[in-house]
Design brief:
It is built from 8 helices and 10 strands. By secondary structure, it is α/β, with parallel strands linked by helices.
Length: 296
């Protein structure tokens, strides 16, 4: 079990007694016990008992990781290894047996064949002979795992999944949407194509998103409704350039722009997932569980 690093803050309350001091008259130095009783909250345990109080263990965040590139792909291995550096996190991997890119939210009728497998670095996994969304069907609907995850991470995909043209056919997004449709918070993470697919930047972006949302995820009630999930796209910048920042933006159409376009040296503003990604920003967009993820 791995744990997400954090700090435990303990507040201590010190209660002081006041003694009135006077002259030689004994009555001047006597303590009015009735008055003291009204000042001290007897429900607060004495400070000497603090060392014997039980220490509450931090909650564990249970994460199910899947993808659409297949259980042996570089991207899923990268995010799993990143998550394993954290504390208070349990990581379970259920992913497609083979590459299923471009299959959207497709599912398989009938039984699913599932085998033991490992990620590229050897982390234990279950491989589902089916689509990305099938991994959620098997894990959740068919009891493939014996718990309900606090979060589903889908990715890291090799190639960006942005724009109104790409998102509907993305298996990475399809798996995240399948989880959200079952009331489980989820995030799809995709790394842009480039001279080198910069998975370390994708891992950093994924962990930053998790850090920003960890409190909400742990505090969330299991029966709270979910109507959206996060879609993160990270550019793979050309040598000599770097990611410009992170923006939360709506989804837009490519409008004739080349899918591969990404210029981290750009000075253009980020107004959508398309302009943001193509101008060198990490983009975060909220996608609806049902319906079109865009307005144009």
């Amino acid at each position: 079990m791995k744990r997400l690093r954090g700090s435990l803050f303990v507040g201590l309350l010190a209660v002081s007694g006041l003694v009135a001091c006077g002259g030689d008259d004994a009555s001047d130095s006597a303590v009015d016990t009735a008055a003291v009783t009204t000042l001290v909250d007897t429900s607060i345990p004495p400070a000497s008992d603090a060392s014997t109080a039980p220490v509450q263990e931090p909650e564990v965040l249970r994460i199910l990781v899947t993808n659409d590139d297949g259980v042996g792909a570089d991207g899923i291995d990268a995010i799993v290894q990143g998550l394993l550096t954290l504390e208070n996190v349990e990581v379970t991997v259920v992913a497609p047996l083979e590459n299923q890119s471009g299959t959207g939210g497709s599912t398989t009728d009938g039984d699913l064949v599932v085998t033991d497998a490992t990620t590229k670095s050897g982390y234990p996994a279950k491989a589902v002979a089916g689509f990305p969304a099938d991994t959620i069907v098997w894990a959740i609907d068919r009891g493939g795992i014996d718990f309900v995850p606090d979060l589903v991470v889908s990715g890291i995909n090799s190639g960006q999944n942005y724009s109104s043209e790409i998102i509907p056919i993305s298996g990475t997004v399809g798996a995240a949407r399948a989880a959200a449709a079952r009331g489980i918070p989820s995030v799809a993470i995709s790394q842009g194509v480039g001279e080198v697919v910069d998975f370390p930047s994708g891992v950093a972006a994924g962990l930053a998103w998790l850090e920003a949302n960890i409190v909400e995820l742990l505090a969330r009630s299991s029966d709270s409704p979910i109507d959206s999930f996060a879609n993160i796209n990270i550019p793979s910048c050309a040598p000599g350039t770097s990611i410009r920042g992170t923006v939360e933006v709506p989804v837009a159409s490519l409008n004739g722009s080349a899918y591969e376009t990404q210029d981290c040296a750009s000075t253009a503003e980020a107004t959508s997932d398309v302009t943001g990604f193509q101008s060198g920003f990490i983009t975060i967009s909220e996608l609806p569980v049902s319906g079109a993820p865009f307005a144009d």
